[in-house]
Design a protein that fits this description.
The complex is a heterodimer of chains A (about 70) and B (about 600).
Chain A (H helix, E strand, L loop, with lengths): L8 E7 L4 E5 L8 E9 H11 L6 H9 L1
Chain B lengths: L1 H11 L4 E5 L1 E4 H17 L7 E5 L4 H12 L3 E4 L6 H10 L4 E4 L12 E3 L5 H5 L13 E7 L7 E6 H8 L12 E4 L7 H12 L2 E4 L7 H11 L3 E5 H11 L8 E5 L5 H10 L4 E6 L9 E5 L14 E2 L3 E6 L11 E8 L5 E2 L3 H7 E3 L9 E11 L5 E6 L4 E3 L2 E3 L1 H9 L4 E10 L5 E9 L7 H9 L11 E4 L36 H14 L17 H15 L5 H6 L3 H13 L5
Parallel strand pairs in B: 1-10, 3-4, 3-5, 4-7, 5-6, 9-10, 11-12, 12-13, 25-26
Antiparallel strand pairs in B: 1-2, 7-8, 8-18, 13-14, 14-15, 16-17, 17-20, 19-20, 20-21, 22-23, 24-25
Helix pairs in contact in B: 1-2, 1-7, 2-3, 6-7, 8-9, 9-10, 9-15, 14-15, 14-17
The chains are: A alpha+beta (about 70), B alpha/beta (about 600).
Chain lengths: ~70, ~600
């Protein structure tokens, strides 16, 4: 049995705190989210996020920590 | 943030009792000791933003340590001293911890490569002025709590201060009174401890820490009575056992909260009937949304007309949505997956961005832009009165002894062992509702003698107790479905038998041992019991231990303290104790 999730495309999105997630490609993007550019099957999107989301602290926390 | 809340209480009511575990500390003493320890920890290298392991038994020192770490701007990660060494090492490595605060007695349990810190204050800190606490915001991490992961790799849930504050302030389901006495009994690694510790300390209440060691129903009843506990949280299993054996112990309890698994309506009815003034809450929630997501509270004798206990409505600062697989709200009353959002959300899984992105998804229903919602994997239904009812899991994750266990994670661990070709791990429910993991294993090569038992022992090196299969059954082949997947529904159901222990079978010798073996069978559901078999090796735990001791009392008229069973856990040893007690005509 093939997981239907592997047949449809997802896109990689991120919010203002630079937290990444995935969204079905045909969906309207909710307010406050932007596309990262990567598009593909679910697992490929998640693997992509594993590579690019290297600091998981919210952006505001990162900025404050680095400011100190 | 959390530290400041407690410090503020200490200014307000400095001489009020704060923590009792043997001795009692006032709020002033608690904060002073936390401040001193914080200075020591900072001097030892703990910095804001660090994640620090806490390897401690339940104690006042443990509470002081948490406050000290938060004051230093660090987050804590509770490590269970009873976990296998390899798992302790993995969790601390995954957490990125460099330091571990450990009880002196547990120093040897700190894996190599981590700096061990003592929870006691060194001389100079006591005289040094404590300095100012690190400034923390609601987005800074307060703790990391590990849950089961489907790949076999546990996931460290990163919980910020704001999420804990949303749990313990402006609670819409409990009115905390300053004279309340809360109980702390959950392991720190389990996020029920978040509620147990921070609800009382941010409200100026008295926190009673249950003595270190295994929780038994007798011990729990004694602690609740002795200290006049008024608010307590219990896992579902413990709640059911307590109502069955010690409902009288709750006479002084004002508000009892239970959860972690499905709550049976019968015990709730019996509790309310026994104590008409008591309030009962079923608290539901994944660790990813900080302890409680929804609650259902009752304080009237609703009794037998309840055929199930709902999980209720969202707690303050939390929104829920019941959605179909395309993320559309289901029709009223239909079953769907529960998604949760709001201030209780964790930041995600430490070091696992992909897994985080998979479970924390854009929230299309939120008013604030960029909000996320967490996919719980729980199927629920909204009742006409607006309360949620738990229906089941989307995947096959189950609760064993109150812990989340994914059978596939146990399969992964089995696959790593030599000579394992195929495995299937399934959940079997015994007649009394107890869930047990049963593993089926096909060897690659010839199966060595007692292989199932040996595999089970080998798993103990990497997995915590709730993940150890109750039985490992060796098979030549596993049944398959048409498309080549293991057909779980066609796996043979063990007759709740399989004596699966490493020691040789020695037949019970005396009439008394035979009678005792029958009681063990009833409680454990194991086919045959040997004289040298260990109750806990056969699947015994604190709850069915109580059940056994009650059965012994009924059958022989002798009260055996739980401690005796823990110290003399084999059938032969317990038989000897029983025989001595009978001979001396001891307590009935």
């Amino acid at each position: 049995m093939v997981d239907i999730g592997e047949k449809v495309d997802y896109i990689v999105v991120l919010n203002g705190e630079e937290q990444y997630s995935i969204l079905l490609a045909d969906r309207e993007i909710p307010a406050g989210w932007t596309t990262e550019g990567f598009r593909g099957p679910r697992q490929e999107c998640l693997d992509h996020i594993d590579r690019i989301w290297t600091d998981m602290r919210p952006l505001s926390v990162r900025r404050r920590m680095e400011g100190n | 943030m959390l530290y400041e809340r407690v410090a503020r209480q200490a200014l307000r009511t400095p001489s009020a009792p704060a923590v009792t575990c043997g001795e009692t500390l006032t709020y002033e003493q608690l904060i002073r000791r936390a401040d001193e320890l914080s200075v020591t920890l900072t001097a030892a290298g703990v910095q804001p933003g660090d994640i620090v392991g806490v390897l401690m038994r339940r104690s006042a020192d443990m509470v002081i340590t948490l406050l000290a770490l938060l004051r230093a701007g660090a987050a804590y990660v509770g490590v269970d001293p009873d976990d296998p060494p390899l798992r302790r090492n993995d969790l601390l490595t995954d957490a990125g911890a460099q330091c571990v605060v450990a009880d002196d007695a547990l120093r040897a349990c700190v894996p190599d490569g981590f700096t061990t810190l003592s929870p006691t204050v060194t001389g100079s800190a006591a005289v040094r002025p404590p300095g100012t606490p690190a400034s923390t915001t609601e987005d800074d991490l307060a703790y990391v709590s590990f849950t089961s992961g489907s790949t076999g790799r546990p996931k460290g849930v990163m919980v910020p201060h704001g999420a804990v504050l949303r749990l313990v302030t402006d609670m819409n389901w409990m009115s905390v009174r300053q004279d309340d006495v809360f109980l702390q009994a959950a392991p720190l690694a389990f996020d029920a401890s978040t509620f147990e510790i921070w609800a009382p300390l941010t409200h100026g209440c008295h926190l009673v820490v249950a003595p270190a060691g295994r929780i038994t129903v007798d011990g729990m009843a004694e602690t609740v009575r002795e200290h006049g506990v008024t608010v307590a949280w219990l896992t579902a299993g413990l709640f059911h056992e307590m109502v069955a054996h010690h409902v009288g112990a709750f006479a002084g309890v004002r508000h009892l909260v239970a959860g972690g698994d499905v709550i049976q309506p019968g015990p709730v009815g019996r509790l309310l009937a026994a104590h008409p003034g008591i309030t009962f809450t079923n608290g539901y929630g994944p660790t990813e949304n900080t302890t409680f997501t929804t609650t259902w509270t009752t304080d009237s004798a609703t009794g037998d007309d309840l055929d199930s206990i709902p999980i209720g409505t969202p707690v303050n600062g939390t929104r829920i949505a019941v959605l179909d697989s395309a993320l559309r709200p289901v029709e009223k009353g239909a079953c769907g997956e529960l998604y949760v959002s709001g201030a209780g959300l964790a930041h995600g899984y430490l070091g696992q961005p992909g897994a985080t992105a998979d479970r924390f998804v854009p929230d299309p229903f939120a008013s604030e832009p960029g909000a996320r919602m967490y996919r719980t994997g729980d199927l629920v239904r909204l009742r006409p009165d607006g309360a949620c009812e738990f229906v089941g899991r989307v995947d096959d994750q189950v609760k064993i002894l109150g812990h989340r266990v994914e059978p596939v994670a146990v399969e992964t661990a089995l696959h790593r062992l030599p000579n394992v070709s195929r495995t299937a791990v399934v959940v079997r429910t015994a007649a009394d509702g107890t869930k047990r993991l049963v593993a089926y294993v096909v060897p690659e090569d010839v199966q060595p003698p007692n292989w199932g038992e040996r595999l089970r022992e080998q798993l103990r090196a990497t997995l915590p107790t709730p993940m150890i299969p109750w039985a490992v059954l060796v098979r030549d082949t596993l049944p398959l479905t048409g498309n080549g997947k293991i057909d779980r529904s066609a796996l043979p159901v063990p007759d709740l038998t399989a004596r699966n222990v490493p020691n040789e079978f020695v037949s019970p010798r005396t009439d008394l041992e035979h009678r005792l073996a029958e009681l063990w069978q009833g409680v454990l559901g194991v086919e045959r019991i040997g004289a040298d078999d260990d109750f806990f090796d056969l699947g015994g735990h604190s709850l069915n231990a109580t059940e056994l001791l009650v059965a012994v009392r009924t059958e022989f008229g002798v009260t055996i303290p739980a401690r005796v069973l823990y110290l003399q856990p084999t059938l032969g040893e317990l038989g000897e104790q029983l025989e001595n007690a009978l001979r001396s005509g001891a307590p009935r």
